[in-house]
Each structure stands twice: as structure tokens, then as C-alpha cells.
Give the backbone structure.
Amino acid sequence: MGLADDPFNYQPTRDGLLRISRGAKVVMTLGGQRAGKLLGALQAAANEDARQHLLARATGNYRRGNERTAKPKATQRR
């Protein structure tokens, strides 16, 4: 399941917090400078795909490219 299937959502609050959710659950709440910086980057992002990648990186919930797919184990011969 990727970002297109299960996208992140974000909601800025009046008190300066930024709530990031995925699948109807809040996964992270940012505040202070970090929230302001991310919100600025989200608003300046070129498209939705770029926003999704920014949110994934902010939460630490992104693929790094080094994951390997599981290979079936060879059957042992006796």
C-alpha cells in the first residue's frame, strides 16, 4: 500500500500546531518552528505528490529504497 492508496492528511490548528493523519488516525502533531517550516513547504509544493512526500518524510514513514522483498526459502534436500 503506497501513498496513493493511503494518503496523508494535514490540518493546521489555530494555536500553531500541525496535525498529520493517515487512515483517520493522527500519526504526528508538530508545533513551533518545525510546524511552520513544514506548513510553508506544503503550501509551496508543486503538486499533491510532492506534499505527500513531504508529509511522509516529516513522519519518518517513507520507504528508503533499501527494503528487500522476501524470497521464498529453498526447500531443504535430505
